[in-house]
Specification:
This protein has about 160 residues and is an alpha/beta fold. It has helices spanning about 25-35, 45-50, 80-85, 100-105; strands spanning about 1-10, 15, 20, 40-45, 60-65, 75, 95, 110-115, 125, 135-145, 155-160. The two termini are about 15 Å apart. Pfam families: DHFR_1.
Length: about 160
Amino acid sequence: MISIIAAVDRNLGIGFQNKLLFWLPNDLKRFKALTTGNTIIMGRKTFESLPKGALPNRRNVVLSSNPATQCPGAEVFPTLEAALQSCQPEEQVYIIGGASVYKQAMPLADMLCLTEIDAEAPQVDAYFPAVESAIWHEKSRESHLVDEKHPCPYAFVDYIHK
C-alpha cells in the first residue's frame, strides 16, 4: 500500500525555502500517528529539512541521484522505483515529499492523506500535484476550526485511487 501524505494550502502550496507553510500541531500529530512503524520515502531536500534528521520508529528512505549522498539513519536509493522495489509487499509506505517526489508517486499511490488548509500562504515555491476527481475519490473528511494552536481552519481528507 502506497500512500502520499502532505499538508496543502488553498492553491496546493506545500512549502517555501524547504520549510512547511503552516505550523499545525494536529497535522504533525496525525503525520506521526500514520507514519510511525511504517516506511517513509522522501527526497534529499526533504530529509535535510528534518530538524533532527531521520524520523524515529520508521524506516527512512531517501531518494538522491548522487551516489555519494549520505543520510544518517536512512537508506538512499537513486530512484523512486528502486526504493519501492526494496519494500516488502506488506510494508505500508508513505511518500512524504517534496514536490518532485509527489509528482512521480501520484500515478503509483493507492491513497492520499492530505491536510487541506483553508488559507493561502504568503510565499510558496513548492506545490502538490493537482488532485484529479476522475482519478481520486474522497473517502473521508474531518474538518477543524481555528483554535488557540491552529491559526486557520483545516481538514484531514483521505482520497482513494478510483
